[in-house]
Amino acid sequence: MNEQDAKIRVERLRELINDYRYHYHVLNESIMSEAAADSLKHELTQLETDYPELITADSPSQRVAGEPLPGFKQVVHSSRMLSLNDVFDETEIAAWRERIGKLLPKDAAIEYFTDIKMDGLACALIYQDGALVSGITRGDGYVGEDVTANIRTIESLPLRLRDVKNYDTFLHGRTEVRGEILMYKADFNKLNAQKALMGKPLFANPRNTAAGTIRQLDPKLVASRPLHFRAYDLIRDDSREVSTYDFAYQAMHALGFLTNREAKVLKDVKSVMQYANSWEKKRLKLPFNTDGLVIKVNDRELYSRLGVAGKAPRGAVALKYQAEQATTKVKNIFVSIGRTGAATPVAMLEPVVIAGSTVQMATLHNESEVARKDIRVGDTVIVHKAGDIIPEVVEPLTKLRDGHEKVFVMPTHCPECNTKLVKYKTEDVIWRCPNNACPSRAWKRIEHFASKAALDIEGLGEKNVIALINAGLVKDIADIFMLKANDLLKLERFADVSANKLVKSIQNKKNPQLNRFIYGLGIRHIGIQTATDIANSFRSLETASAATIDSLEAIEGVGGIVAESIVEWFNEPRNQKLLAKFKQLGVWPEAVKTVGGPLSGQRFAITGSLENMSREQGAERIRALGGTFQSAVGKDTDYLVVGANVGASKLTKATKFGTKQITETELLKLLKS
Ligand code: IVH
Fold first, then answer.
1. Residues 174-200: pLDDT tens digits?
2. CB of 119 closer than 6 A to ligand 1?
3. Which of 13, 339, 484, 604 has the fewest Cβ atoms within 10 angstroms?
């Protein structure tokens, strides 16, 4: 990018960030997520670092937070309502620990009070002699808005402090309780569902809805919307009355407030980190949104001694979970064919790190969705990623367009097999590739390859396969052998133990039995028995892959359709590449042994059901001793094992060919010999 391009980009970014700020802080609306806006700010700061001459005093990068709203009485806070500095990992927590350690006496024992960081709006409640007298929003930290009438409608906060033993001091004089006003996710969803029914525009997220609600001038409307208050701070004129945060929480709980029971006193940075990790996934199940943890020095005397730097106390930090949204550019849009043949437009993105992993692709769902969102090649877009869910393009930032963007046109034919796509759904237009053999249907293939009768890879069931495909970690059946535990750990489904276990169970199957491997390839019309017959007949993958239709048809039980399907599969260049890939990865089926074993050179078929084992178990045991198991009786069959409830066809053939007929007991004897 040259300076001229940078200048244009910087101006567009500023305009959009300013728009976002105005909507967010003044109008209480959100035109994009905070994470997406942060991502834009990051790009702006980056450009300003590269081209310092472009920095202006009014650039959003040079400004610090928010204008108060008119309409409510302004109230000065008893003490400033501060923000928190963010940290993102253990190293940053340790650095914070070291900084504060230097400011405190050497022998000061520091304990950490850790709580979930709730994503709502901060509010201060003032109680005079036990009665609620006012509720004030955070505002700019110094001055907030008096929203007492609205606050009073929130049932989860006491209008009068409970009179309980040991805490009666708080019923005398002034007690201030600070906390977070929240709308729960479930209530938010209900509210939006109602809005959708009425055809009204939807709310952006629970926090904005809560903030918008609490600033309504009509308390009746506030009362109709379910809000909650969760307390996190207790302030008295004489600070010695509240010695630790731990005590503050106990007291607030006793006085009638909702506090997070999850909050904990922890002894060291390591335990804080463990606690943080333990919440990373669980937090999604909380009734409200959270974006991290709050870590405070538990001892309030030490805490206040540490003082304030800028807008934040030195004695606390917010440990933030990684943002789930970012902005990036759409390089191209292509169509991917899913397991059911659905043709899904996918955006190829300039790589961007979201929540700790690099995202290069995002789903655009279907043709209608692309049109509705008006996503074009070349657009800067907001990308969202949550857990293992496929990243998705939320929306394009149309104000950043420069005229070079290209509108996406849905192809008429399958990009993989060139079959004409058919319309599958018309409401949200979904196209489908009707070709069942379309090579794109990787998902099913991998699941089949790992299934019990094929390679029998424990832990590689449907859900894990989908997660791996979605994460872009595997595309074909050979890719699974390249998986590393570290790749898996990036997915929400895996922890240390499960990741290592899966990698191990895959690596254990690098030299599978030939019949299982052939079956696992997913060749049309080839069930496990046919695969076994082929394996027994050709004995190595090299020979089987060079088989001709004639040589295949010579095998009992293999007809014309099956033979053709096999030859076709091995002749397909894509499949030849796949086999080469296996070979390169050191994955190759064991050749069926020709010599050795007491039953070597003898061919068995079974008819009817056996008493002591299943037919497949019988087959395995025959093979284990060097014998060959055949699914049908042929001229070369040496023994037909006759079980119970036999059908006529094998017996007739055996009689015709003069095959020796034996009982299950006789077979057992042979197996023991
Ligand atoms: S303790 C200096 N505990 O996060 C303020 N705050 O970024 C420390 N918040 O303004 C407050 N959950 O609105 C604390 N468990 C929690 C919190 C929490 C959410 C908010 C609070 C504060 C902001 C700081």
1. 999 999 999 999 999 899 888 878 877
2. no
3. 484
Q: Is the CB of 316 under 6 A from ligand 1?
A: yes
CATH of domain 325-432: 2.40.50.140
Residue identifier of the C-alpha nearest atom 13 of ligand 1? 122
Q: Is the CB of 367 under 6 A from ligand 1?
A: no
Cα 122 to middle of ligand 1, angstroms: 7
Q: Pairing between strand 85-87 and 316-320?
A: parallel
The one catalytic residue in 41, 117, 296, 385 is 117
Say yes or no: CB of residue 139 within 6 Å of ligand 1: no
Mean pLDDT for the stretch of residues 164-168: 91
Q: Which of 80, 87, 232 to mutate to test the pocket of ligand 1 (most atoms within 8 A of CB)?
A: 232
The finding on whether 118 has its CB within 6 A of some atom of ligand 1 is: yes
Q: Tell me the HSE value of 104 on the side-chain side, using a 13 A CA sphere.
A: 23
Whole-angstrom distance, CA of residue 598 vs CA of residue 605: 17
In the three-class reduction of DSSP (H, G, I as helix; E, B as strand; rest coil), residue 79 is classed as coil
The tens digit of pLDDT for each residue in 350-387 reads 999 887 678 888 989 889 889 989 999 999 999 988 65
Residue bearing tokens 């099956």: 562
- CATH of the structural domain 603-672, one choice from 1.10.10.10, 3.30.70.1110, 2.102.10.10, 3.40.50.10190: 3.40.50.10190
| Known catalytic membership, residue 117 | yes
Residue among 504, 474, 499, 513 nearest 623 (CA): 513
pLDDT tops 70 at residue 57? no
In CATH, which superfamily holds the domain spanning 439-584?
Answer: 5' to 3' exonuclease, C-terminal subdomain (1.10.150.20)
| Per-residue pLDDT at 64 exceeds 50 | no
Instruction: Evaluate whether 516 touches 530 at the Cβ level (below 8 Å).
Output: no
Residue 222 alpha carbon to ligand 1 centre in Å: 23
